[in-house]
Amino acid sequence: MSQRDIEFSVGIFVLIGILALGYLSIQLGGLDLFGNSSYKIGAKFSSVTGLRSGASIEMAGVKVGWVDKIALDGEEALVTMRINDSVELSHDSIASIRTKGILGDKYIRLSQGGSDKIIKPGGLIRETEPPIDIEKLLGEFIYGKVK
User: Fold this and answer.
1) CB 42 within 8 A of CB 110
2) I want to staple 90 with a disulfide (CB 3.0 to 4.6 A). Which of 42, 71, 113, 131 is the partner?
3) Are strands 106-111 and 38-45 parallel, antiparallel or unpaired?
4) Residue 119: which residues within 8 A CB-CB, separation 6 or more?
5) Domain boundaries, the chain
C-alpha cells in the first residue's frame, strides 16, 4: 500500500467518524431536521411550575409532541404545544403536567376524551391539571390539614 492510499483510507475513516458523531448529536439533541409534520394547539394552566419549552408531550407513554412556547395569558399560563399530525385529540381531552420519576423533568400527559369532536389546529384543550406542589402537600401533611 502506498502512502497516498493510507492517507486516503485514514481520511475516509475520519469522515465516517464525523458523520456518525453528527448523527448522534442530532438524535440525542432531539432536533428534527426533516420536518416531522405537526400542528399547534394550546392549553391554559393555573401553574406550569418546572415545565420548559421543548418538554415532551406523551399519550399512553408514547411521545406525541413537544412544548413549543409558554406565555402568560391574563392570570393563567398559556402553553402552546406541537402535536404530531397522526394524533387526533377529542374535544374533551385532558392535559396534565406530570413529573418523570420523583425528581425528573416535567412533561405533559394527554388523556383522550370520549367526544367525537376533534380539536382543530390552533384550538385549545379546555381541561387541564397543573403540577402537584410537593412542598404545599408536605406542609399540609405535617400540620395536619390533609383530609
Assistant:
1) no
2) 113
3) unpaired
4) 41, 88, 89, 90, 91, 93, 125
5) 38-139
CA 102, distance to chain mean position in Å, is 18
Here the cell at position 86 is: 397522526
Residue 118 CB partners (closer than 8 Å, separation 6+): 88, 89, 90, 91
Least confident among 12-26, 52-66, 124-138: 124-138
pLDDT reading at 146 higher than 80:
no
Looking at the chain, how many residues does it have? 147
Rounded-to-integer distance, Cα 42 and Cα 111, Å: 15
The number of angstroms, rounded, from the C-alpha of 135 to the middle of its chain's C-alpha atoms is 24
